[in-house]
Amino acid sequence: MKRLLACAPLAVAMALAGCDGGATDPLRPSFDRGGGPGINLQPGGFGEGSFAAWKSQEGLPDNKGNANFALYIQKMTATATVAAGFAVITGVEGKPFSELSLSWLHRNDGWCGAGAPRWNVGVTGTSGTDYTVFLGCSHADQTGSAPDGWTSDAFSPASIATQLTTLLGFSAEQAADIEAGTVTGLAIIFDEGTDVGPGFVFLDNITVNAKTFTSPGDNGN
């Protein structure tokens, strides 16, 4: 199935264009959020009722300190409204797509749908073609262990490779090109609104390869 869910052009942090592009005209995030050396996560929002921010005493124990942060993302408006909460992750550009491993824990009082929260992965294939791979929360591997009240949502390299053709509608040739390509950008997008769910989610232990974000203090090396 091609990814044809509603999406929002996030003019501040990313350029998301063409919501009905499918595999041959995919959405492509553009990243220019700054930050220090290493891998950084920068939350933000665009449009009505939408933002993201780290919230203390809403999450699990942190790597540093005792504030127990969780990343709160919301879209308190209809899905069709051009708006989204998001978090842009920088420092992964140029890494092999085939080695990408992504996960988070979502708190069970929030939304976990097919399209939000989701990972948007920008990729340039060896052919020079640009793609965006969508990895929606409800399509993650949720069999991993998690504390009470939380669910683990993981995408291993193998599961991502399988979803390229079985779920996202890329051809075998395109999937091979993506698998051999490099990451050009990465973001978490929340653009499904209150007409389909509660309009928010709390995420914690957000992991990109070997890097785990438990609070804003985890930015950088």
Describe this protein with a few key phrases:
221 residues; Jelly Rolls; 6-stranded antiparallel β-sheet; 5-stranded antiparallel β-sheet; 2 helices; 8% helix; 33% strand; globular
Structure report:
With 221 residues, the chain is mostly beta strands. The chain has a single domain, classed as Jelly Rolls. The protein has 2 helices and 11 strands. Strands 2, 3, 5, 8, 10 and 11 form a 6-stranded antiparallel β-sheet that branches. A hairpin with a 2-residue loop joins strand 10 and strand 11. The longest helix has 10 residues. The chain is globular and about 45 Å long. The N terminus is likely disordered.
What secondary-structure arrangement, pairings included, does this model have?
Layout (H helix, E strand, L loop, with lengths): L39 E7 L3 E6 L14 E6 L8 E7 L11 E6 L10 E7 L5 E7 L13 E6 L1 H10 L5 H8 L2 E9 L9 E9 L2 E3 L8
Antiparallel strand pairs: 1-4, 2-3, 3-10, 4-9, 5-8, 5-10, 6-7, 6-9, 10-11
